[in-house]
Design a protein that fits this description.
- The two termini are 14 Å apart.
- The protein contains ten helices and nine strands.
- It is 47% helix and 20% strand.
- The strands form two sheets. The chain has a five-stranded antiparallel beta sheet with strand order 1-8-3-6-9. Strands 2-7-4-5 form a four-stranded antiparallel beta sheet, with no helix packed on it.
- The protein has two domains: 146 residues, Regulatory protein AraC (Jelly Rolls, Sandwich), CATH 2.60.120; 102 residues, Arc Repressor Mutant, subunit A, CATH 1.10.10.
- α2 runs antiparallel to α3 and α5 crosses α6.
- The protein is of the alpha+beta class.
Length: 262
């Protein structure tokens, strides 16, 4: 799910990309400005791209970004990502937050993004599974930071108690019915409001939370068996857990743990 990545410094008018002139293959670009800046034209609106801002763009699409003549050198790192689930989540972020993102300098997503690029530049990746796992962690961190918050950066308050409930009862057989009860709505009304707030249905949100927390336990709790971690994450069947984990992370829980894919 990562086709290319790198660090660059551009100060030439030759640096000029158009989103409809990069072929027909679908992918997403995440490009974080560390100093200097560039210009972005997105669906007819032109705006500057400055330090601490990130471009999030899908290709093919009607946009253009470039280094403006006379500007400071544009220093940035970038990740080009592909894959159905990655593109779905990144498109949700772009649609809700726009193509120009403000991201905290100490955010988890930036830490992961830089680490991935450093690894890719210095010595590459050992396998396609490692690349997939790295991309998954980055996309999920970015989604957690930007889809769980409103445009002003505040938490989506109405359902924070639901999210807390899910974390505290993860090992139990909870589902959308229980989530709706905590929120005080009917299942239908809750599902509609939750998707408006978070961008994905509540059942999928809970499934992703289970996988994300299970991946943390796989990294940090080597003495626990995969079967026990599956149970703690709310999966009664270890085989089902393995299938669900692979469908999201692109690799089995065992390979994820053995090969250090994080």
């Amino acid at each position: 799910m990562i086709s290319s990545c790198g660090f660059e410094c551009r100060d030439s008018r030759d640096y000029d990309w158009h989103g409809l002139k990069r072929g027909s293959e679908k992918f997403a670009l995440f490009q974080y400005t560390e100093s200097g800046g560039g210009m972005l034209e997105y669906e007819g609106t032109r705006r500057p791209v400055g330090e601490g801002q990130a471009l999030l763009l899908h290709i093919p699409h009607q946009h253009r970004y470039w280094w403006p003549r006379g500007g400071r050198p544009w220093r940035f790192f970038f990740l080009c990502l592909y894959g159905r689930e990655a593109l779905r989540l990144l498109r949700q972020i772009e649609e809700r937050r726009g193509p120009l993102l403000h991201i905290a300098v100490n955010s988890r997503s930036l830490e992961l993004g830089r680490r991935i690029v450093e690894r890719g530049v210095e010595r590459g990746f050992d396998s396609e599974f490692e690349v997939s796992a790295q991309a998954y962690q980055f996309v999920m961190a970015l989604s957690d930071e930007l889809l769980n918050r409103n445009p002003e950066g505040k938490e989506t308050r109405p359902f924070q108690n639901v999210v807390t409930f899910c974390r505290e009862h993860l090992s139990e057989s909870i589902g959308v019915e229980q989530m709706a009860a905590v929120a005080g709505f009917s299942r239908f009304h809750f599902s509609r409001l939750f998707k408006e707030a978070y961008g994905i249905p509540p059942g999928l949100f809970l499934a992703h939370m289970r996988i994300r927390i299970a991946s943390q336990w796989l990294r940090e709790e080597g003495s626990r068996s995969i079967k026990e971690i599956a149970r703690r994450a709310g999966f009664r069947d270890a085989n089902y857990f393995a299938r669900a984990f692979r469908s999201v992370a692109g690799v089995s829980p065992g390979n994820f743990r053995r090969n250090g894919m994080y």
